[in-house]
């Protein structure tokens, strides 16, 4: 046993290979992975809506980009004092998640219009109404 866990125990005790074909069938899709498709994923939310979810992401992204540029900008120069590749990846994840969140909420709002989340001002904008109509 190394580092508090035994690799063999992990492999034999936990499912390491999920039955994705079966999971797709149970979710209402075809077994073939090339047929898995969410139609709402093909609609890009407007930038105005995206920026309203975690509006600070772009400012931090600019700092990371300044730090990773050839000049290695410090905090005072609009960058970061240290390299942080994990942080940059986290921002990329947040940008992806806000896109998915808006796409999913566009589908959920007509089904659950009284959900508390839909009281936010973002969901009262004409841009949101247009996006919901398209999705």
Explain the overall architecture:
This protein is mainly α and 135 residues long. It has 2 domains: 1-37, no CATH class; 40-134, no CATH class. It has 6 helices and no strands. The protein has helices spanning 7-13, 20-26, 47-50, 57-68, 85-111, 126-134. Helix 4 packs antiparallel against helix 5 and helix 5 (85-111) crosses helix 6 (126-134). The radius of gyration is 21 Å and the shape is flat.
How are the elements arranged and paired?
Elements: H1 7-13, H2 20-26, H3 47-50, H4 57-68, H5 85-111, H6 126-134
Helix-residue proportion: 40-55%
Q: Spans of 5+ residues with little confidence (pLDDT < 50)?
A: none
Instruction: Output the radius of gyration.
Output: 21 Å
Q: Find the count of extended strands (DSSP E, 2+ residues).
A: 0
Q: H/E series, N to C?
A: HHHHHH
Shape: flat
Mean pLDDT: 83
Treating each run of at least 4 consecutive H or I residues as one helix, how many helices? 6
Number of domain units? 2
Distance between the termini: 52 Å
The biggest sheet, with number of strands, parallel, antiparallel or mixed sense and barrel status, is: none
Q: What class do helices, strands and sheet pairing give? A: mainly alpha
Sheet-strand content, in percent, reads: under 5%
